[in-house]
Amino acid sequence: MIKSKKLASAIAVTCAMSLSTAAYADPVENLHKEERAIHNAAVKSQKRVDSMFEQSIDLLGEYRSVVDETDNLNMYNEHVQKLVNNQQKLIDSLQGQIDGIEDTKKGVVPLMYRMLDSLEKFIALDIPVEVEARTERVERIRELMSDPNITTSERFRLVLEAYQIENDYGSAISAYQGKLNDMTVDMVHIGRVSLLAQSLDLKHAWVWDNDARDWVELGDEYIKPVTKVIRMAKKQVAPDLIKVPVFAAESAE
User: Fold this and answer.
1) Which residue, 92, 148, 187, 251, has most beta carbons within 10 Å?
2) Cβ contact 141:157 at 8 Å
C-alpha cells in the first residue's frame, strides 16, 4: 500500500507538472503568434509603402512629362497665333486689293482701247513692214477685248505684247519676200529708218518714201548695196557699213 500510495503521489506530481508546463506554454506561444502577426503586418505595410513610393515616382514622372508637354504646347500655340495674325493681315491686304479691282478695271479697259487705237494709227503712219501681220494682230486683240473667257489681265498682257513687238521692229534688220506692183520682190528693213526692195533678178531696187507713201525706184548705184544689205539680213554675209537712202517714219499722236 505504501508503494501504491507513492506511485499515486508520483503520478499526481507528474500530472501537476504537466498541467503547470501546459499552463506556462500557452502565453509564450501566444506571444510568438502575436510577434509573427506583427511581423507579417509590418511586411505587408512595407510592401504597401514600397508600392505607394513606386506609384508616386511614376506619378512624378507623368507630372513632369505633362508639364513639359504643356510648355511645348504653349510655345507652339504662340507660334501658330503669330502665323494666324500674319495670315489675317495678308488676307486683309488681299481683300483690299480685290475690293479695288473693279475700280482698276474701270480705268484699265478704256486705256487698253486707247492703246489699240494709237497702235493702229502708228502702223498706218509707219513704214509698211509686214503690215498685214501687224494689222491682224491688233484686230485679233480687239476681238478678244469682248471675249468673256479672257480676263482683263490677259487682255492687258496681249496689248503690251503687241507694243513690245512693234518696239522690236525699230531695232531689227530682217529680210522677207513681198509684193510690189504685183511683182514678188525681196524686201529688207533697217529698223524703221529704211525699207528697201529688190527684184529677184537683182536688176531693180526701190526705197519706201514715207512722206509720199509710195515706192521710189533707186539708181543703179544702189543695186549692189541693196543686194548686200539683203544678204546681211539673211545672215549670208557678215555685217558691214553700207550706204542706202533713208526716210524717217512719222509718229502717231
Assistant:
1) 187
2) no
Question: Is the whole-model pTM more than 0.70?
Answer: no
Residues 180, 165: one domain?
no
Query: Does a structural domain hold residue 69?
Result: no
Q: Are 226 and 187 in contact (CB under 8 A)?
A: no
- Final residue belonging to a domain, choices 149, 169, 189: 169
pLDDT in tens, 58-68: 888 888 888 88
From the list 122, 251, 219, 234, the residue with the least C-alpha distance to 187 is 234
Ramachandran area for residue 215 (φ above 0: left; ψ -120 to 50: alpha; else beta): beta
3-state secondary structure 83-138: HHHHHHHHHHHHHHHHHCHHHHHHHHHHHHHHHHHHHHHHHHHCCCCCHHHHHHHH
Domain total in the chain: 2
* Band of pLDDT at residue 249, cut at 50, 70 and 90: very low
Domain assignment of residue 250, yes or no = no
Q: Per the domain annotation, does 229 fall within a domain? A: yes
